[in-house]
Amino acid sequence: MKSAAEKTKVQSGTCRDGQYDNSRGGLQDPAGTLPDEKKKRILEKARELYNQSGSKGEVPEVCFNLKGRAAGQWRMTGGQEQLRFNPQAFVLDWDAHFPATVAHEIAHSLVYRDHGPRGARPHGPEWQARMRAFGCEPRVTHDTPLPGRKMKTHDYACDCRHHLLSARRHHLIQRKHYRYQCRQCGATLRLGNNTRGAAD
Q: Do 129 and 158 lie in a common domain?
């Protein structure tokens, strides 16, 4: 097993395993561990697709630390491109995600390189053309049943029942002094006890 901060350099791309652990700033292994041979195939496919496109930039860092229902993500972090993949998606249904999910995220990267941050819609005609050039159907969603992120909820009460509010709404109430009212009785919601009721 690799150490928390260890990185593996694979030709012109960088691979990183695990998820960020905000309490320690390190990396942890994800729940759905993808074999190294398959990670290598994803990195090789990424390099091949960038070369096929004639892109002048290097292959961005590739991370296998995405969680939740998304199978892949392209993003800019601190002015650097990054490709993130959900290892569980590839473990559950390799054929559905390789190479389609890899091509999907690289197509986003190439559209950004060609048109800038506001030059094209995320899944617009430019992105669709890139996907077709890669020999992939320009699908926006996938069918792999991935578990969503577990969202923390907070118990609030009104005069008629309990409400489960998201962490965001709880923060707005506690820190920004927002007020939410029950749609049924009209009473302002107040922080409740541990009893779980219907979600609003």
A: no
